[in-house]
Each structure stands twice: as structure tokens, then as C-alpha cells.
Amino acid sequence: MREPNEIIEFDLSKHQLEEKLNGMMFETETNILVVKIKSELKSSPLRCNVDISSMKNTIQLVDEMVNGTLDKETKHRCIYCLRYHLTKYKIIKFNDSDRKWYSEAFPDDPTFFPDREQKQKRESKPVQPPDPEPQIQKMESVEEWQKLVKEKYWALKHTADENFPGLWFSLEFQLSVKTILNIKNCTLPFIGIILGRPGSQKTLGIELMRKEKYTYYTDSFSAKAFVSHSTAVSKKELEEIDMLPKIKNKLFLTPELSPTFAKKDDDLKEIIGIITRIADGHGYKSDSGAHGGRGYTGEWMFTWIGAAVDIPHSVHKLLSTLGPKIYFIRVPKIQKSEKDYLKQLQGDEFAVKFKRVQDALTDYLRTFDTGPQLDFDKNTNLLKMPWNAQKEDENSLVWIIKLGKLLGHLRAYAPTWGTKDTQGTEYAYAMAKVEEPDRAIEQLRNLARAHALTQGRNYITSEDIPIVIKTVLSTASIERVNIFDLLLAHNGTLNTRQIELSLNLHEHVAHRTMAELKAVGLVNLDEGQHGNSIKTITLRSEFKSFLDKEFRKLREEFIPADYSEYLKKEKVEEEEEEEEEKDQVASRILPPYCPDNTEPAAEGEEDKGLRGNFSASKTEVEPKPKPRPQETCPICGEILDSNPYWAKHHNCKGEGMTE
Questions:
Q1: Which strand (E) or helix (H) includes residue 252?
Q2: Matching CATH number, 142-228+240-286+293-335+342-386, of 3.30.2320, 1.10.3810, 3.40.50, 1.10.1740
Q3: Could you give the CA distance from residue 609 to residue 439 in angstroms, rounded to a whole number?
Q4: Which of 215, 476, 189, 438 is nearest to 328 (CA)?
Q5: How many Å from the N-terminal Cα to the C-terminal Cα in the chain?
Q6: How far is the C-alpha of 188 from the C-alpha of 105, rounded, in Å?
Q7: 97-115 pLDDT, tens digit each
């Protein structure tokens, strides 16, 4: 409800009138329209009575008032602005006859729509028809399809091994993550990151799948790109640049995530927070002062494959705090001989080998789509396979449960601190934040189901457990996994000396590690006798099954590789670059005559005094001069100025030196 003496100011920017007018307003108490024209055109404002009973009469009065003062185009925009705001604030009733007259007199008004249908037509975007159901020739027999898919699957593995040895390890994982999208009623997103040293072909598989349907690829992105609040575009246009709708029901591919995980702590926390939120599968919404609340809600399914060198400890710590919803797979290190490199050089060109694998992958995926049990889902535009839970191997499901519980303890965060000169391990610890295993068990089961589906099965068998084991041992911090492996190698019992010798750790570091393992609930700790530095840890009873031969067989001798050394190299290189930049900045701002250079300026060069050049940029910090030792006069003992000039001209009160 408007106040009786309210003054309503019109928005000039909507009609591009800022350059011509200083203001346009309506006084509700007197029903007078005030138009303030730029001073160079007219000094005093124009005032006009408004006929609140007729829009037509009011517009004609204003037309006569500004006629001759404003050019035709500006006058029309002024009328457009008037009509828009008088209608918006319901100052004048705009009846049908006035609307008809206005549409004929001012047909070019971009804010006027004679009828609702025309408005909707002009404002709305063209509705894109849903993707048509793909015309795929389905195979009639399920058994024949399963047999053919398995043949194509192993043919793809053979082609990958022949052309790019070591590629299959990551490609198998990527195929499984991609196929999660094809499981019917699976609505929990999966994020899988491949870890490997530079040149380990960890991104080659991503490039192979880049052009496949139902994928979204990007080389670089910011976490805020999922739901943008950019002020450079309008709120309606933001929907076109938001990344979250683009990855819905798709395989999201990001070949390089190392820069993302190397952000500063505050930025990293924000990024991981947004990623873990969208990993819930319920969309994402955020608020800003520019556009208010924006985002997307509802079921939001996607899978994500990324690649990085390794994961810093800060990321593991954040994941354990914000919610561990990202999974990793560590590519094993492959030691190549000179013969291997020679064979590589004498073989075909990279492009030829890449095309062979690409063709084999395409052949496999097209064969997969012909499955008679795969139904096209119009809501997601994806082929979906109904799951046969009754045929699943119960022992395999038990292993998934055990692995989910183990993962919770391996990646839990447990703060520890030194308690030297006290009883015990010399380290105390706080309550560990061990995740509930429910979500991890569900995610690992989905990965196993997808691995089964890649070979044509809609039920889990023991063949699908190795990829789950590799994922679990890769997702936890490498330090914890190394200790866990050492425990398994020593039949579940370790003492301080064994940890020191096997992992090359100092005694105090070994004690801290043992305290952490006890805090996360993975082992029991025997402190030993007071004064004895030898402590012993024993694997807790609920994890004894990992000592069995069955686990060693399912593990397939997988040892997760540690690539943290490459992170340290990158950090050292970055620090060296920063120091080099600082040196370059300092060299640019050194004056021709400064405290470190007491010689006069060269001939033809301006002498800018002891303090040098003050014209340097404010962002460039002048290096501080080195302090000089203070000198005293040998006659009177007075402290002399550090500058040789003033020392020379010192006028001693005794019989000392004078000028």
C-alpha cells in the first residue's frame, strides 16, 4: 500500500534514459509527473498533471510537454517509461480501448505486450523437445547378449594392453563409474578420482570417453560455476551458464584436478563443501547479494571421473570433516625397461594406437546398448537395467560391508598431540570422527553392480570385489594403508621397532602413528611397561578377516602407489617461482642512488637522492637497506650519521675534524 504523499521514482535504466534525463518521478499527493532533463538541455524540470482516469490522456499530455525539448527517439522512450511505471504501480487503469490505442500509436515499445499470449511468446525460450528414444536394434536373447558383451569387453582390454600398457587399470574403473548411470533406480551420484604420476596415462581414458554420448567434459572449472551468481549477466541468463544442469544424468569428465586440490585452506574448504553437497544427489542452492537465492532442487543424478597426481593431507582432513563422498583409485607404478621403450618407439604413432582403442571402446559401448533388458528412461534419456538382487552372491555382499566399515576407520581423522615425559605412548589423542558406514557400503555396492553390468550381469559375484578393494585401499590416506598392509604382513601384530625399520620412521613418529590407529578404532594398543619404548598394536577382532587367504586372492596383489613426492616437487617449484618474482620486483624498484650504493648517479642519469625513486608502484615494496654499524667521532665520541657525507662534514666541538 502506497503512502498518500509518496514520491515514486522511475527506473531510467530499463529504457536507456540515463544519458538524457536526470530523473523521472510521480508525486502521488498532487498527481504530478516531474521530468528532470539533463542540465545542458534544460535547466528546470518539466511538470505535468496526470489524468489518473485515462492512460491515453496522460500520455498525450506528456507527449505535448516534451515535444520540441527531446528528440523523437528519446521522447518515445520517455513515454515507454511512463506507461510501464504507471501500469506497474497501478496508478492508472489501463483499459482495453487504451491498450488498443497504445499498441497502434507505439508499436515498438519493448515492454508492452497487447495480450498475455504474445507476452509469453516473446519472453519464453523455445522449448527443446526431449531427446528421441535411440533407435537401437535390440538383441532377442539375453544369454547371447551377455556372451557378446563379455567378448567385446575382453577384446577392449586386449586392445588397450597391446597399445597402451597399464591403461586398462584406470579404464576399467572409468567404465564402471560410467555404467552406474545405467542401473535402474540408482540415484546416488558417484565421484571417482584417478591418482597417478605425470605421464601415467591417467587422463588417456578420460580423453577416450570424451566424445561419447551423455558426457560433459571440461578442462577447468570453479566450484561456484555449478550455480553462478555472476553480475555480468542477468538472472535469466545465469541458467544458461550454470554447470549443475549440464551434468545432470551425465558422466562429468575433468582431466586435471590437481590445481583444485592445491588451493589455499579457505578456498579448498569452500570447494570441497560445494562438491560434497552436490554429491548428495539433491541439487544445490546458494544465496548472494547480487541475485538472491539461486539453485536447483530435486533428484540430481550424475557420475564424475577426474584425475590428479595425489591428494594432499589437508584434503583428506577436510573430507573426513565435511563428509567423505569422494573416492579414489591409485594407478600402480609400472617399471619399464629399455626394451619396453624401444618397442614403444618402433611401434605405431600415438594417433594410430589411440584410434584402435577408441574403435574398440565404441564397439563395446554400442554392443552394450543392444541389451534386451535395457529400457529407455524418458526422464533421464538413459538406458536402464533392472537389478536382480536375488541372484547376488551373499559372500560378496558381506565383503562389501566389511570393506565399507574398514574404509570408515582408515580415513577417519584423529587429532594427536605430544605428552612427553608422561606415562604412555608420549602421544594423546582426541575422539576420532569415524563415519557411519551406511553410505560407503551403498556407494561401494553401486560400484560393484556397475562393474558387473559392464560384463552383462545384473547381479554381483566375487569377480566384482577386486575393484572395490582397490578403491578402498586407494581412498584412504596412503600412510594409513601402508601401516594396515604392514599389520597384515605381520599377521595383525606390530611393535615399535618393526614400524621404524619397515617404514623408515623415527621412534616418536611411530608412536604417534600407533596412537592414531588406536584412536580411529583399527587396533588395540599395548603400552608395555613404564619406561619401555617398545609398544605393540594388534588388529582388532572385527578386522581379522582381512588376514584370510580369500582377501589376498581378491586383492589381486594390488599395492596402492604413493605419489606425494610429486606434490612436494610442485610445491618447491612454486615457491622458487614466487621467490624469483619477488627478486625481479625488487630489482625493478632499486633507485640509481640508494643506501646500498653510495656512489653518485652516472653521468646523464638523474640523481634521486638517498631514498631513491618514489615513482615505483605502490604494490611494489622497496627492499629494506641493510643496517650499517654505528661510528663515533674519535675526538668527542659523538655518534656519527651512517652516511659518509655527514661523517665527513662533522664539526667536532674539540680539536677534531672540520670541513
A1: strand 251-254
A2: 3.40.50
A3: 70
A4: 476
A5: 88
A6: 58
A7: 888 888 888 887 877 766 5
On whether the pTM is more than 0.90, the answer is no
Express each pLDDT in 464-514 by its tens digit: 999 999 999 999 888 889 889 999 999 999 988 888 888 887 887 788 888
User: Pairing between strand 32-37 and 21-27?
Assistant: antiparallel
- Whole-number Å distance between alpha carbons of 90 and 60: 19
| Residue ranges with strand state E in 400-546 | 416-418, 427-429, 493-495, 523-526, 536-539
Q: What is the dihedral of CA 36, 42, 44, 45, to 10 degrees?
A: -30
163, three cell numbers: 597399445
C-alpha cell of residue 276: 560434497
What's the CA gap between 184 and 186, in Å, rounded? 5
Contact call for residues 620 and 626 (beta carbons, < 8 A):
no
Ranges assigned E (strand) in 540-623? none
Domain ranges of the chain: 7-121, 142-228+240-286+293-335+342-386, 397-558, 627-659
Over residues 646-654, the mean pLDDT reads 49
Interatomic CA distance for residues 612 and 181, integer angstroms: 67
Mean of the per-residue pLDDT values for the chain?
79
Rounded distance, CA 183 to CA 389, Å? 12
Identify the residue whose cell numbers are 586383492: 555
